[in-house]
Amino acid sequence: MKGQQFKVQEGDKLFVHHMEDAEAGQTCEFDRVLLIDNDGKVQVGTPTVEGTKVLVEVLNPLVKSDKVIVFKKKRRKGYAKKNGHREQFSQIQVKEIVIGKGKED
Questions:
Q1: CA-to-CA distance for 77 and 65, rounded, in angstroms?
Q2: pTM score above 0.85
Q3: Which residue in 9, 76, 83, 104 has the fewest CB atoms around it within 10 Å?
Q4: In sequence order, what are the beta bridge partners of 38?
Q5: Alpha helices in the chain (DSSP H)
């Protein structure tokens, strides 16, 4: 998910970086799973766990975060610059985690 890693369980709701092609109610699939903990059985991928995927539903494709203030200043130079921005996120909910084969530790 655009360079992010998350620890999730079924039913979790979370915010990820904005997914441009997603629509509300759409089901997406993430197949790059690095680690699975299934009732104490840990499967570690090399680099990913084969056949494992996470199915999510897009709840809201575009959510703006709180405003982030960027303030730059150089003391005794008369330089001060204030800027801000709001990041865009998508809200998703984990529907199912499909567990495949992998190396057990």
A1: 33
A2: no
A3: 76
A4: 41
A5: none
